[in-house]
Specification:
Length: 159
């Protein structure tokens, strides 16, 4: 028996040859120039005519005199809810007590969290016991899965 290294090599199959040639073909490239922009324009490229100062003054136009409506000044709230890197609010659903207790968690709140709790309670028409504030982690916990309602509240408040 002849060892594999000593056997005569055969030409590769057509399918193997076809796929390998595809990657060997040269790629068209544009020449890269480090010189400054050429000053001569090609003959078929039209150039813009230059205007003298006298003819340029005849083309002056007045700006329209419409006034843009001023946006309503935002109400300064004693609290702020920031967004994450993906421009989303940090509002999450949590299940506790084996899935029997559903809680919505609002994170990244700053400032007067008691005022945010009061406004959230009024907007969602909740009882005082349904909304609680963890002053250590600065999270607001709302009883029940109310993520969509809280997001709607935050967007209407302008955050």
């Amino acid at each position: 028996m002849i060892l594999r290294a000593l056997r005569p090599t055969t030409s590769p199959a057509a399918s193997v040859l076809r796929t390998s040639i595809r990657f060997v073909l040269p790629i068209r490239t544009r020449p890269f120039s480090t010189s400054p922009v050429e000053t001569s324009a090609p003959a078929d490229t039209p150039t813009a005519p230059t205007l003298s100062s006298a003819s340029a003054s005849s083309f002056t136009q007045s700006a329209p005199s419409t006034t843009s409506p001023q946006p309503a000044p935002k109400v300064q709230l004693p609290y702020f809810v920031s967004k994450n890197n993906l421009d989303n609010f940090s509002v999450y659903h949590r299940r506790k007590a084996g899935g029997n207790l559903k809680v919505t968690l609002l994170k990244r709140a700053e400032g007067n969290l008691q005022a945010l709790k009061h406004d959230l309670k009024e907007a969602l028409q909740l009882r005082d016991a349904d909304v609680s504030v963890n002053s250590v982690t600065k999270h607001i916990m709302v009883r029940g899965h109310r993520r969509d309602e809280i997001l709607h509240f935050l967007r209407t408040m302008g955050f």
